[in-house]
Structure formats: structure tokens, C-alpha cells
Amino acid sequence: MPFERISDIQTNPVSIWVDGKEIQAHAGESLHSALCLAGVLELSGRQNLDHKRGVFCGMGVCFECLVTIDGVPNQQACMTPVRAGMKVETRNA
To answer: Checking phi first, is residue 74 left (phi over 0); if not, alpha (psi -120 to 50) or beta?
Structure first.
């Protein structure tokens, strides 16, 4: 696996839904981290183009990691903490 958690401090796992698939994550970690650990590396396809994007800067500057969270589009995965039950769509409309 190319990604792994390096912190010794972990909270109880929570379930989140990514493109209709349930994955396990830890509350409070960045959504980007949870997605990478689950093998979801391609995010936010551009309208009218078939180009995939992913996280570039990881600190909220570039906006390459936009996803829809709980029906709200254009949310930054790298800046959003995981919470139980969140529903994430990796392709923005």
C-alpha cells in the first residue's frame, strides 16, 4: 500500500461514504488522508473535460482537491476533517 498512517494517536474508526462506497476513516483526520488511505486518488473531474485531478499542495492553496460533501459542492478535501457518516462525491458537477 503506498499510503499508511504514521501517527500513534488514533480515534475510533468511523464510516464515511465515498461515491456510494463505505470506507473506514478516523474522525478528525483530513478527508484527503482518508481518501488516499482508501486508494481514492482521483478527484474532481473538470466540467466538459475528462481530466482527473488530485491533491497538489495539501494545504488549501491550490483547490485541486475539490469534492462534494453532503451535497455541498467545491469543498477542499485537504482542509476538511472527517466526521462520521459524511457523504463524499469525488466528481463535482
So the answer is: left
